[in-house]
Amino acid sequence: xxxxxxxxxxxxxxxxTIGRSGLSVALVAACVLMLIPFMWMVSIAFTPPExxxxxxxxxxxxxxxxxxxxxxxxxxxxxxxxxxxxxxxxVVALNCVLAILAGYAFxxxxxxxxxxxxxxxxATTAVPSSVTIIPQFLMTRAIPLAGGNDILGNGGxxxxxxxAGLALPHLVSAMNIFLARQYFQSASVExxxxxxxxxxxxxxxxxxxxxxxxxxxxxxxxxxxxxxxWDDFLWPLVITTSRESQTVQLALASFRSDGIxxxxxxxxxxxxxxLPVIAIFLMYQRGFIxxxxxxxxxx
Amino acid sequence: xxxxxxxxxxPPRPAGAAQNGGRRGPRRSPSSHIRMTGWLFVAPAAVxxxxxxxxxxxYGLVLSFTDYSPISRAAPDFLGLDNYAVIxxxxxxxxxxxxxxxxxxxxxxxxxxxxxxxxxxxxxxxFGVGFVRAALYIPYIISLTAVSLIWLWMYSQSGFFNQFLDxxxxxxxxxLLESTTALPAAAAMRIWTALGSNMVLLLxxxxxxxxxxxxxxxxxxxxxxxxxxxxxxxxxxxxLTFVVAMxxxxxxxxxxxxxxxxxxGPLGSTTTVNYLIWTExxxxxxxxxxxxxxxxxxxxxxxxxxITVRSMSGRNSR
Amino acid sequence: xxxxxSRRFRTAAAGLxxxxxxLTGCSGSQGGESDALTVWFPGTNPAEVELMTDTIVPAFExxxxxxxxxxxxxxxxxxxxxxxxxxxxxxxxxxxxxxxAVSDFVINERIEPLDDxxxxxxxxxxQDLADAFTGGQVDGSQYLIxxxxxxxxxxxxxxxxxxxxLDDELDVGSWEELLEVADRLTVRDGDRVxxxxxxxxxxxxxxxxxxxxxxxxxxxxxxxxxxxxSAFNTPEGLAALEYFVDTYQGxxxxxxxxxxxxxxxxxxxxxxxxxxxxxxxxxxxxxxSLLDADPEFEVAVAPPLPLGDSEEGRYLGGAGPGLMxxxxxxxxxxxxxxxxxxxxxxxxxxxxxxxxxxxARKSAVDTPYVADDPxxxxxxxxxxxxVPNPSVPGWxxxxxxxxxxxxxxxxxxxxxxxxxxxxxxxxxxxxxxxxG
Lengths: 299, 318, 436
What we know:
The structure holds three protein chains of three kinds.
Chain A: H1 2-45, H2 66-74, H3 77-108, H4 114-123, H5 129-141, H6 163-167, H7 174-185, H8 190-197, H9 202-210, H10 215-231, H11 234-239, H12 248-253, E1 256-257, E2 260-261, H13 263-284
Antiparallel strand pairs in A: 1-2
Helix pairs in contact in A: 1-13, 2-13, 3-7, 3-10, 4-7, 7-10, 8-9, 10-13
Chain B: H1 30-63, H2 82-88, H3 91-121, H4 129-141, H5 144-154, H6 160-167, H7 182-207, H8 211-219, H9 224-252, H10 256-261, H11 273-283, H12 287-313
Chain C: H1 2-5, H2 7-26, E1 37-42, H3 46-64, E2 68-73, H4 75-88, E3 94-97, H5 102-107, H6 115-119, H7 123-128, H8 130-134, E4 137-138, E5 141-142, E6 145-146, E7 149-157, H9 158-163, H10 175-185, E8 187-189, E9 192-195, H11 206-217, H12 235-248, E10 279-283, H13 284-293, E11 299-301, E12 315-319, E13 322-325, H14 332-343, H15 345-355, H16 368-371, H17 374-381, E14 386-387, H18 395-410, H19 416-435
Parallel strand pairs in C: 1-2, 1-3, 12-14
Antiparallel strand pairs in C: 3-13, 4-5, 6-13, 7-10, 7-11, 7-12, 8-9
């Protein structure tokens, strides 16, 4: 029996090591495949503008930094980065608070009609923005007491061309509410019930018991909220008029004019613009406990 | 009673235990308190979404019964169901519905399965795991304007994919130019873009499965596959449900990749409903009929999303 | 990480955000109606932006004392933004677009007719700008002030001609003769065309423009003179479409890459440079851009050729994007002053040079920009032979329908006559619907 057991352990160990290195190879392959277009972007970013797409290989034969300086200068990129960053901070904070709170309540604190309310909220994500953008634009313009408007929202320009206006459609995303609800649906109610019996209020139960255990959820909501703001093009296009209010995608779009695309500066700008998101991601993804407390999940 | 996960690891309460621990005293109806707090917690988000998203949707619905054109000075005329009648008789719209449905079927399975595989692969601690996750997430966050130009080139006659085929002596493909390959080509780009987000979501889901369950399964003799079937899948069920529903909702509204890669061609083989909607709304200034199309799409999306959530939620949902 | 989780931080963050929201909202840009002149300029090219920001706007502001607020947009994005602005009633004083969209603005009374302003210009200026101005007229009235002229011409690779034993200066008298030359320049591999002898744009909407070029070269026209119905379903139309389809279908096809949108490709990926084509119809700025990518490349422009019984050939060309004055602009005289300033010779030439377009002014032919550049001189000398797309209400819908049907014809899913019949129905429909 012992020999069999030892034999078994030996082969398990071996197959585990092979399995592990096989998975590592798969992972590296996946990374490379996923990054190929990005590598081409970086390559073009360093290629002189007239030679864009003319290179045979990934390494440009005549690398240059001029695209980056063009991007920063011509596209007003620093201002755009600042604007997008401010909007992103607002949106991430509000989503992490309000969307998660609402999702928690839908999952753990049912009330009459909560199902209908929930689905009504989620349904708003299934309507293309081409249809909602004009009503949203009209509403943004008519925000009372903003931008010179009177109490009825007339006379001025509301929140058009402002940071607040840029943030307005993203403050709380129904998708994040949906996600939070799903995440908390698998939570056990016993802890809440026990805490209630001990006299704890709902807020305490949420913030002291459930929220600390939902680190991955907060990380994901934060990442998604940030990305939504960063990648938004249509809304900033419609509500901004001054260069001072531009966001990053609009700034990048300035390299595409009348069918002529300035590939070099565009790619350089796109690379620059993706760096903050990567940084945010790296920061937030630490909320995914890297298995240090969980131990190694087999496989 | 601090557990490290949200999941139930403590034994369930014995049946028959008194609800409030046998304590006497002023009767507090737990359910009404819960209900009120639930409502309170939901209110800020719900009010915001209701005002700024639901109201515009309803506004759009009303517009779908009119001939509203933003460029026109005249007030819109009420048309009843005319817009809907016209689009259902329009072969272009019916084709777009078919294209959209096909597109969802092409993108969804690889996206979900691929996302799950990647999530499993990166759910381990190893040196540099953060960078690997970031690398896999990058496609999702790079500017679509820029990266779609790269994909255009990759699919071009002398682009990356044909060079690759050439190296193996295989014939070139007219990727975006043939009606048989154009939609799969657009689907490939969409999958590439969205894998990162699915991966991140499923990673969060995987993280919520307590390792004790894996250990218990291992002790019961379950191998890797058995653990996956009996611990992982049920454990990530709610998040997986979300991923599938969210993917259906987003993919069915596919527009950006079509706009850049193919402009709806060749021969209408990549014209999705959202592409038609955008053209109708902003090129032809017909917001009324664009709205009607949008709500037909909306109905289809919601039906499939609801079916998905219902069927995938199982008995454990609240 | 834990600090981000703490309730206090979250409450503070939420509170701060809401405050920020409120503050930034209130401290937003214009409070109420400002008296600035608002301009939505069609073009985001850094050269254009620099010209406007550094030269035009400061000069104008100094002269009139009125602030000018300019928003730069690619005119593909303009429609979306304009629609929202029209819906909300806050359209800018001046906005730009391409000629194709002008009639839709006119029929909806969104823009101001500019005939009086134009008539008040010095006679010499009116003459100088006449070529550009015609493209901005609807029903004989001036609505759009084009800032440049744009066209698509037949360009060819001299070295390919030499290689085939021909003179490197193309000398043919008709499209039919050109086809014979194209056949000699075509490099085939089995039934695949490796190098196209003649590459005509086949992707939407370029295919409609190619059709117009051939149709006009055959002596036909797209729309009736009153602008109310189609006029291309004629022998000339058939000849034009048959010619077009024959370059792609059949054993002696001379075209390749059917359906590809190569006119928008980067210079290094252009078929002429990659030796995937010997002759091609391309926008003029693309032709010039070939030299940016490869200064050694020998490209030349062919004169327009007649088709069939016609005597004169034509190229698609005419007014480029320009500016219009909103019907709701508060101070239309001021708006006109701004536009007129853009038309002055110095500013106009700086503008077209910045974007590489054909000058709007005839007198620009003597400037170094034209005189020192053989290609630009060619483009300018061809101006009398340019024919534009129609400028009638419903044109955009009509054009898109034509492009879709042409695509089917080019793929041999319809015979040329069937295609013409279908296009006639669709175009007549679109024009009738737009007139209401």
